[in-house]
């Protein structure tokens, strides 16, 4: 018999699948979730740490790039004093703790601003080179860590100077909320800087002091554990196919808190950045104030598994008793006839195609004994229950199995609008959205600051060829611009780099540093402009790429994210959108409007859990902070359905639906298999067997498969050949000759 055909393999596979599924159902659906932290909360902390790592990495890389680019732009112009360099740098950027210009050859301090830059432990003679020195971290005597960035100031005929900028490792614009701490950790697990942790001196009593001490100890433990996990390869730290963050990231569970960790990694896998080579990690810790309990009783899983055993046993019994046994009986009876055992009548099955084939075999047995086809009579047409065929029996089994699967998929363990969603998830959605909002605002401010720096260095004596070279250098170092160009007071372009400008001539010159144009068009146009000193109103204009903003807000675990303008029209997002389209519902519009209301000196982010039309989390965060981007009055809004989160109620629902789907899939696969290899060939065989019993000896019967149906077909073919031989051996009866009519004698005529 064939391994993939026949009646036995599909039924055996169905029985094995149902037995396995019953065991899995009893174990999985009967499992009670231990009281603890939902997996969704742990995953949210991992994403929070990834956000912090992305923000810190971008800030460090941007800081290093600003120093090297500024030094290169100064070196391309006329020689200036060290004080002028630092004054210009300080007026453009306000990100460094201290800046210094020193003579590399002598080590003499030329100029300094801000805090003292720790150069005593740096070998200045090793900082010479064509590409300049690489950034490095130094620890101060008070325990704080500074990151030093270097740039070379080189003019012909002048001593080579070194521009040094010092910054801390604080997180830029990370919204922590309540009960959260975040820290920067080195490769050894030492905490280099932290935010959100209270100092022991701020304790108001012994209870607070004890709580602060416990939190500090737990953060230190998380930092050491994260440093050990950061040593692994990013490709091996995640589940296969999960993708996501390009670095190492994960979550940690403590006694009172949970934490997420993430290494500083480049935006694209395989790329290298300055921040990524420092060996730093980010640890975000939050106190757990909610615990999840058991979602269901183990009785449900045991009952579901037992019900499947009963239903499956009934379905398999139906298949064995009404499909497999009659077919095997037909196979044995047909072989008996081919061997010449014609003494006993054929045992005819009771239903469907098997009954028709059995009746045909009985008529063929009688014909082999010498009766004619006419004498055996016509084929008996079954009536009543005997008309039930194999397809109907398979349908009955399918109904039995689907009667178990359908309720699991549609009725049981449904997480309705009353599902318990941890408050921490709403807080995380709000804080992460606020972090994204600050990230977008800082990116716009950085773009404006870059243009201000480049415009101030162009001055009034730069030729168009030199301006084009400066624009090309700036354009290649920044991915945020789609086009950079210098315009005169009338809007005429004097030098350009990048794509063709989208801003029309009359709108190219403006007194506002940042503008949003393109309303009514297919794509928003965000424009930054900086006046070039000494050129009578000429400006350096940069048009931002929309893809740049889309990439800023593309973060896992936040659902749908949109940047909206002051009219609540969409500017950018992490999924497909139409430019200047309204938000999809009124709830989100009201949430953005509420977030834009000032509470005190600045607006506050807000997060809400909606339970109408499906449970979902939403948050909105307006631009809040200094810089020219605040005048745009943009907001970042995000929302996601809670059904996608790893919450116990939804996990139970998903497992229940999966069990139902597996049961339905097993039924469809095995019963469909039976229909293809048994039911359809059996129906065709019944028609051929009845035709053969009726006397049609001409068609040759070919088996399609080497299985029970094929074996019965081969037996019928042998019977057909025996009947043909029997007909040939019988003497032919010639009809007796009919007497021929004698001609009557001619009449005698006599003459009178």
Question: What's this model, at a glance?
Answer:
This protein is an alpha+beta fold and 752 residues long. The chain is built from 13 helices and 22 strands. A hairpin with a 5-residue loop joins strand 3 and strand 4 (145-153).
Describe the structure in your own words.
It is a single chain. It contains 13 helices and 22 strands. It has 752 residues and is an alpha+beta fold. Mean pLDDT is 83; it is low at 746-752.
Give the secondary structure arrangement, pairings included.
Blueprint: H1 8-28, H2 39-76, H3 82-92, E1 98-103, E2 109-114, E3 136-139, E4 145-153, E5 161-167, E6 180-185, E7 191-195, H4 206-229, E8 249-253, E9 257-263, E10 281-287, H5 298-338, H6 352-368, H7 390-410, H8 423-458, H9 464-477, E11 481-487, E12 493-498, E13 514-517, E14 525-531, E15 539-544, H10 546-552, E16 560-564, E17 570-573, H11 586-596, E18 598-599, E19 602-603, E20 606-610, E21 616-622, E22 635-641, H12 648-693, H13 708-729
Helix pairs in contact: 1-5, 1-12, 2-8, 5-6, 5-7, 5-13, 6-12, 6-13, 7-12, 12-13
């Amino acid at each position: 018999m064939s391994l993939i055909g026949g009646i036995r393999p599909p039924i055996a596979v169905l029985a094995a699948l149902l037995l396995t599924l019953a065991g899995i159902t009893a174990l999985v659906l009967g499992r009670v979730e231990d009281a603890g932290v939902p997996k969704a909360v742990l995953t949210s902390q991992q994403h929070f740490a990834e956000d912090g790592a992305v923000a810190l990495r971008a800030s460090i890389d941007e800081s290093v790039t600003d120093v090297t680019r500024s030094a290169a732009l100064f070196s391309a112009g006329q020689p200036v004093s060290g004080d002028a360099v630092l004054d210009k740098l300080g007026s453009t950027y306000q990100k460094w703790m201290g800046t210094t210009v020193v003579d590399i050859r002598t080590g003499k301090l030329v100029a300094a601003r801000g805090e003292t830059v720790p150069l005593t432990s740096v070998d200045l003679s090793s900082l010479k080179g064509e590409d300049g020195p690489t950034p490095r971290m130094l620890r101060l005597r008070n325990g704080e860590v500074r990151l030093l960035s270097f740039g070379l100031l080189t003019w012909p005929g002048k001593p080579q100077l070194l521009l040094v900028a010092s910054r801390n490792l604080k997180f830029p614009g990370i919204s922590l909320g309540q009960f959260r701490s975040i820290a920067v950790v080195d490769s050894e697990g030492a905490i280099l800087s932290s935010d959100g942790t209270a100092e022991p001196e701020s304790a108001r009593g012994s209870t607070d002091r004890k709580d602060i001490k416990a939190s500090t100890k737990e953060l230190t433990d998380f930092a050491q554990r994260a440093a050990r996990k950061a040593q692994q390869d990013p490709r091996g730290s995640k589940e296969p196919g999960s993708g996501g963050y390009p670095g190492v990231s994960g979550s940690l569970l403590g006694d009172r808190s949970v934490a997420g960790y993430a290494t500083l990694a480049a935006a694209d896998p395989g790329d290298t950045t300055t921040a990524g080579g420092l060996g730093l990690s980010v640890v975000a810790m939050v106190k757990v104030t909610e615990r999840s309990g058991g979602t269901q009783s183990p009785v449900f899983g045991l009952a579901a598994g037992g019900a499947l055993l009963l239903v499956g046993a009934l379905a398999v019994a139906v298949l064995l008793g009404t499909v497999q046994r009659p077919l095997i009986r037909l196979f044995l009876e047909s072989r008996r006839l081919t061997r010449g055992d014609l003494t006993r009548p054929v045992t005819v099955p009771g239903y469907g195609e098997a009954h028709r084939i059995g009746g045909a075999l009985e008529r063929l047995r009688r014909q082999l004994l010498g009766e004619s086809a006419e004498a055996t009579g016509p084929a008996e047409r079954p009536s009543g229950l005997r008309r039930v065929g194999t397809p109907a029996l398979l349908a009955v089994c399918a109904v039995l199995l689907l009667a178990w699967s359908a309720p699991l998929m549609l009725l049981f363990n449904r997480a309705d609008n009353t599902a318990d969603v941890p408050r921490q998830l709403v807080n995380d959605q709000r804080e992460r959205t606020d972090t994204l909002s600050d990230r977008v605002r800082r990116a716009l401010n950085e773009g404006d600051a870059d243009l201000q720096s480049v415009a101030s260095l162009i001055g009034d004596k730069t030729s168009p060829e030199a301006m084009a070279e400066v624009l090309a250098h700036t354009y290649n170092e920044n991915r945020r611009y789609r086009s950079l160009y210098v315009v005169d007071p009338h809007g005429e372009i004097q030098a350009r780099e990048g794509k063709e400008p989208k801003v029309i001539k009359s709108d190219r010159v403006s007194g506002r540093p940042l503008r949003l144009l393109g309303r009514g068009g297919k794509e928003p146009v965000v424009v930054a402009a900086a006046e070039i000193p000494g050129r009578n109103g000429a400006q350096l204009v940069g048009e931002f790429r929309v893809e740049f903003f889309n990439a800023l807000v593309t973060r896992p675990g936040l659902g749908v994210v949109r940047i909206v303008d002051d009219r609540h029209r969409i500017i950018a997002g992490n999924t497909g959108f139409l430019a200047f389209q309204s938000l999809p519902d009124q709830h989100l519009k009201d949430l953005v409007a509420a977030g834009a209301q000032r509470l005190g000196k600045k607006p506050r982010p807000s997060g809400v859990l909606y339970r109408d039309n499906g449970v979902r989390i939403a948050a909105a965060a307006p631009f809040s902070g200094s810089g020219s981007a605040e005048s745009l009055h943009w907001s970042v809004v995000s929302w996601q359905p809670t059904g996608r989160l790893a919450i116990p109620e939804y996990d139970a629902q998903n497992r229940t639906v999966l069990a139902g789907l597996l049961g339905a899939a097993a039924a469809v696969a095995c019963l469909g298999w039976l229909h293809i290899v048994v039911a359809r060939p059996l129906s065709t065989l019944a028609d051929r067997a009845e035709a053969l019993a009726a006397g049609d000896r001409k068609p040759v019967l070919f088996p399609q498969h080497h299985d029970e149906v094929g074996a019965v077909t081969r037996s019928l073919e042998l019977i057909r050949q025996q009947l043909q031989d029997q007909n040939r051996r019988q003497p032919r009866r010639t009809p007796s000759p009919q007497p021929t009519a004698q001609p009557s004698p001619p009449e005698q005529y006599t003459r009178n």
